[in-house]
Each structure stands twice: as structure tokens, then as C-alpha cells.
Design a protein that fits this description.
Pfam families: SBP_bac_8. The chain has about 400 residues and is an alpha/beta fold. The chain is built from 18 helices and 16 strands. The chain folds into two domains: about 25-140 and about 295-365, D-Maltodextrin-Binding Protein, domain 2; about 140-295 and about 370-410, Periplasmic binding protein-like II (D-Maltodextrin-Binding Protein, domain 2), CATH 3.40.190.10.
């Protein structure tokens, strides 16, 4: 019954069939948030529709991304997918296994526009030698901090290394009444086993020389991963970090209220829209300087040749300097088009927001999470290990258990 109702809903969401031979209607599903960003995207879709007489794009907000996946998989199995899907790259392997998406390198290689796209972004969207999607936006993670709290603690320089970050966090932790319950903590760490926790920890994994994939298979129990997880645990043992409520590590109330002085997040954050004093510094280094990309992408789904041809016109528009300039300035995400990043309009935009330059400069050391089939299971096991370690289990034991679970899944 549930499946039948889902299929009826999915069918109703499909693009309207062409009313004549001149216009091709295509459907695009996305989960763009917050609503203000959705409005920016819709204006750009409307602009495309107004300037293309032969293609009309129907943009549909299909809900939060994690809530969308069952709906998408149902649509794929029932052979009623949208023509274009916006999602995150880590589901690429799963879509490839299902035969749900179309490789795009043959199309993109013919466009002069390809030279305008950041090469490392295309690398992130590539699997098994094929480009499976194109980037809508990109970003990465840094550490926001409260300058007034730094000043009050006598801190004049932002930390450049893990050790300096640990020392700064201690100085920023304040127990005013001596009850061993600080009113102010140095740092917030995300609690939970969800993707936000995993995403927030990846920069430390990369910086500590760790990995989660070796020879195409999960490899969690390695010295670099243990080292990175130990660092987070050490911050807690020092008493200078506090955990977020479960699965709510992205919330910023504690930072805005001055209960924590530092928070791991990206340029999309509400912090930048608040009246709170803030600045940002790059993820401190250990073995390497590193951060993790947060990229949104578009998949071309397997539909009819006519609809695929029409959809490619829209995807070319998404990559253009025109689209990317309006999108980046309107949303705060980093542009994927190099001409946009160098444009007068965008340079004026970031000159008014100096903190954005930190994220632009970090793109040179930004790395991506894996896109192999089964990433969701890998992420879930990794999230459990992070959560267990933050609750007191040794990083070695937590990662060993996670790896054993994955070995069973992968049949090792």
C-alpha cells in the first residue's frame, strides 16, 4: 500500500508531457535549504525558462535530503525518476549500481565551459573513470570564533596547529563560580552518529594523515584515524569542549549566546547573518593542512533522449558564470566557476565579507568524502565509532568494532 501511494505521488511529480512538439518539460528535484536559498534558485530557474522557448524546467522541493532518499530509490525502481536530481555526491556509487544516472564526461568534454570549472570539484564527482554529476555549489569547513572572547582570554593569535587549538580551547574555558561546570567552553563538538558529525570530523581525519578507504574498501582502523579521534576525545578530557545535543551539532545557539567560543561549520552558517561578533580561521594542521568539501551536485537521471538533451541545456546554464555569480552572492556558497570567483561583482561581495576568503583559500587543500557504493553504511559505522569515542570508549576499540561491522557487510 505504502509503495503504491508513493508511486502515485512520484508519478504526479513528474514533468508534464509536452503539449506540443516544440517544448520539452523537465522535472528537477532538490532539497535546497534554507528557504531563502531556495528562492534564489527558483529565480534562476525562472530566468532560464524565460530565455529558453524549447525547454521548461519545473523545480520541485522534495524535502530534506536524508528524507528524500527512499522516495528517490522508489522512483528509480518504478522507472519514474525526475529528469534532474540535486543531491550530495556520496550517493554516487549507489546510483551507479542501480543504473539510475548518466555519465557526463562525454558532454562536458565538448564544452569550452569545462576549463572554467575548478578541477578538484570534477575529481570529487568522478567514480571509476566516469564523471557522474556536475557541481551546483561547493564549500568547506573552518572554525568560527568569537573575537571578544579571545580578547578577554588574552589570546592574540588564532591556532595554527592541533596543539595550539587544544591550548586555546583550555584558555577559553571559564568556570566563574568554581563549581566545575564551566559557564563558557572553548569549543563545541558535534554529538551523534549522523552525517554532520562524520562531516565535521573529516577535516581532522585528513589533517592527521588518516583514511577511510584503501584499495576501494573501507579501512577505518588505521593510525591516522585513531589519532584524529583521539584528538577530539582529548578536548573533552581537558574539559575544554562540550558536546552538542544528539544529532544537532550544526545548531549555533551556544556560540551565539557566548557559551562556546569556537564552532566547526562553514560559510552557509546563520552566524554570519546574526549580530554576534565573529571571525573564522582555517582548520589547524597536524600532519597536513586539510579541510573537507561540502559540495552540492546535479545528476542527469536515465529518462528519454529528448528529456536528457533538454536537461543538459539547463546543466550548462548551472555551470555558467552568469548563474554561478548570482547563486554564490545570493546564498554564500562558494562558486564552482573560476570566472565567477574572479569577477568584479564577486570580488566586491567577498571584500565586504573578509571571512569568506578563508574558505576560498582553503579550497586548495580541501578533500572530499568517498563516493563509493555503500558510503551510507560506511558513514553510519564511522559515526557510531565517533559517538562511542566521545562517550568515553577508546578510539582504537571504537574504530576496530566499526571496521569489523564493515568487514561483514563487504564480505571480507
Amino acid at each position: 500500500m505504502i509503495l503504491s501511494v508513493s508511486l502515485i505521488f512520484l508519478s504526479s511529480c513528474q514533468a508534464k508531457e509536452s503539449q506540443n512538439n516544440q517544448v520539452t518539460h523537465i522535472t528537477l528535484w532538490h532539497g535546497i535549504n534554507p528557504p531563502v536559498n531556495r528562492d534564489v534558485f527558483q529565480k534562476l530557474v525562472d530566468k532560464f525558462n524565460q530565455t529558453h522557448v524549447d525547454v521548461q524546467v519545473e523545480s520541485i522541493y522534495a524535502g530534506q535530503l536524508d528524507q528524500q532518499l527512499p522516495k528517490i530509490l522508489t522512483a528509480v525502481v518504478a522507472q519514474v525518476p525526475p529528469d534532474i536530481l540535486s543531491f550530495y555526491p556520496q550517493v554516487t556509487g549507489q546510483f551507479v549500481e542501480l543504473g539510475a544516472i548518466v555519465p557526463l564526461e562525454y558532454w562536458l568534454d565538448k564544452l569550452s565551459l569545462k576549463s572554467e570549472i575548478s578541477p578538484n570539484l570534477l575529481e570529487e564527482l568522478t567514480l571509476n573513470g566516469h564523471l557522474w554529476s556536475i557541481p551546483l555549489y561547493t564549500s568547506n569547513i573552518g572554525i568560527f570564533f568569537r573575537p571578544t572572547l579571545f580578547q578577554a582570554a588574552g589570546i592574540t593569535n588564532t591556532p595554527k596547529t592541533w596543539q595550539e587549538l587544544r591550548e586555546v580551547a583550555k584558555k577559553l574555558t571559564v568556570d566563574r563560580n568554581g563549581d566545575n561546570q564551566p559557564e563558557q567552553y572553548g569549543m563545541l563538538l558535534p554529538m551523534g552518529k549522523g552525517e554532520w558529525t562524520v562531516f565535521s570530523w573529516f577535516p581532522f581525519l585528513f589533517s592527521g594523515g588518516g583514511e577511510v578507504i584503501r584499495n576501494g574498501l573501507p579501512n577505518l582502523n588505521n593510525p591516522g584515524a585513531i589519532h584524529a579521534l583521539q584528538f577530539w576525545q582529548d578536548l573533552l578530557k581537558d574539559g575544554s569542549a562540550i558536546l552538542s545535543p544528539p544529532e544537532r551539532g550544526y545548531e549555533e545557539d551556544a556560540f551565539l549566546q557566548g557559551r562556546v567560543a569556537m564552532q566547526i561549520t562553514g560559510p552557509w552558517t546563520y552566524i554570519t547573518k546574526s549580530k554576534t561578533d565573529y571571525q573564522v580561521f582555517p582548520i589547524p594542521s597536524d600532519v597536513d593542512q586539510a579541510t573537507v568539501t561540502g559540495t552540492g551536485n546535479f545528476y542527469l537521471m536515465k529518462t528519454t533522449p529528448e528529456k536528457k538533451k533538454a536537461a543538459l541545456q539547463f546543466l550548462e546554464y548551472v555551470l555558467s558564470e552568469e548563474f554561478q555569480t548570482e547563486w554564490a552572492i545570493g546564498t554564500g556558497f562558494l562558486p564552482v566557476n573560476l570566472k565567477t570567483a574572479q569577477s568584479t561583482a564577486y570580488q566586491q561581495y567577498i571584500n565586504q565579507r573578509p571571512w569568506m576568503k578563508v574558505f576560498l583559500e582553503q579550497m586548495g587543500v580541501a578533500r572530499a568524502r568517498p563516493t563509493l557504493a555503500g558510503y551510507n553504511r560506511l558513514s553510519e559505522s564511522l559515526g557510531r565509532a565517533i559517538e562511542a569515542s566521545l562517550m568515553g570508549e577508546s578510539p582504537q576499540a571504537a574504530l576496530k568494532k566499526a571496521q569489523e561491522r564493515l568487514d561483514l557487510i563487504w564480505g571480507k
